[in-house]
Amino acid sequence: MTDITTIALHFSKADLLRLVNIAHAAGDAIMAIYAQEHIAVTQKSDESPVTAADLAAHRVIVSQLAEQFAGIAVMSEEAADIAWDEREQWQTYWLIDPLDGTKEFIKRNGEFTVNIALIHQGEAIAGVVYAPVLNTTYYGARHLGAWRQDGQQEQLLQGCKIPRQVPIVVGSRSHLSPDVADYLNNIGQHEMLSVGSSLKFCMLAEGKADLYPRLGPTSEWDTAAAQAVLESAGGKVVCYDSGLPLTYNQKPDILNPYFIATAPGWAK
Ligand SMILES: Nc1ncnc2c1ncn2[C@@H]1O[C@H](COP(=O)(O)O)[C@@H](OP(=O)(O)O)[C@H]1O
Ligand SMILES: [Mg+2]
């Protein structure tokens, strides 16, 4: 067994807390830019926005991962130009979105996150999602569980203990698609919450919502860390068409298929 496989298969709570510290360091870099009066925004080739905060967080994460978990490949939203020929060989790698919810960051509503996931054989097996403005961190790993940390306090995530009569659905604040609107018309009575970034998955993990239908585009780095948190809490993320779990690095295209994420205990 190689060292890398050992890390993936024996990922410990101590390893997870090291990842949390890396996400917090990236959050500090983001907040230094958030505090500035003017935030310069550049459009990427796909017309999505990028700021100095995305790039600063990327650099912090990549350098600290290399220091603390040497030898594991990294794919980041901010360094995604890696040929399929090369990455299809990867059994284990870090998949990161240094700043998910860039539009929310620009709007300064706090609903943006740092995301670091460990992918092993196509599955998101560990992940950290940190919302620096909210001072809240969600983290989890398969076979360990999932937690929420506010300051020093840590709470185990297990979804909602008592099923709700009227389900709460979460959707994107900035990218709600017509397909989601159609889906919602067909699910009967529900309450709708609009939230930016990967926080939506975390709300399912902590029992604040029941369902997150994403019938619109996302990339693999948008979902991996939060999927790891949600699944470690007992929830699910499945492809809308196939009903199979959402997987990573199984195809050249980095876009995810449409998916449905559900809270622990969701049975409808
Ligand atoms: N047309 C599109 N193609 C690919 N990804 C898209 C997209 N529209 C939105 N997204 C993704 O949705 C993410 C934001 O999620 P939400 O809408 O749930 O807040 C964005 O992450 P970034 O902010 O990291 O770019 C972006 O990657
Ligand atoms: Mg993103």
Give the helices and strands, then pairings:
Layout: H1 3-9, H2 13-34, E1 41-43, E2 49-51, H3 52-68, E3 73-76, H4 84-87, E4 92-100, H5 102-107, E5 113-120, E6 123-131, E7 136-141, E8 145-150, E9 153-156, E10 168-172, H6 178-186, E11 191-195, H7 199-205, E12 211-214, H8 220-232, E13 236-239, E14 259-262
Parallel strand pairs: 3-4, 10-11
Antiparallel strand pairs: 1-2, 4-5, 5-6, 6-7, 7-8, 8-9, 12-14, 13-14
Helix pairs in contact: 2-3, 7-8
The structure holds adenosine-3'-5'-diphosphate (A3P) and magnesium ion (MG).
Magnesium ion binds at residues 77, 97, 100, 222.
Binding site for substrate: 77, 99-102, 222
Binding site for Mg(2+) 2: 97, 100, 222
GO molecular function: 3'(2'),5'-bisphosphate nucleotidase activity; magnesium ion binding
- How much is the average pLDDT? 94
Query: Which CATH top level class of the largest domain fits?
Result: Alpha Beta
CATH architecture of the largest domain: 2-Layer Sandwich
Listed once per kind, the bound small molecules are: adenosine-3'-5'-diphosphate, magnesium ion
Please tally the β strands and state the result.
14
- The helicity comes to 25-40%
Read across the widest sheet, the strand sequence of neighbours is: 3-4-5-6-7-8-9
CATH domain topology of the largest domain: Fructose-1,6-Bisphosphatase, Chain A, domain 1
The CATH homologous superfamily of the largest domain corresponds to: Fructose-1,6-Bisphosphatase, subunit A, domain 1
Biggest sheet descriptor: 7 strands, mixed
Strand content: 25-35%
Low-confidence stretches: none
Oligomer: single chain
Q: Please tell me the total number of domains.
A: 2
The number of helical elements comes to 8
State the shape.
globular
Radius of gyration: 17 Å
Membrane topology: Peripheral membrane protein
Family: Belongs to the inositol monophosphatase superfamily. CysQ family.
Binding site for substrate: 77, 99-102, 222
Function: Converts adenosine-3',5'-bisphosphate (PAP) to AMP.
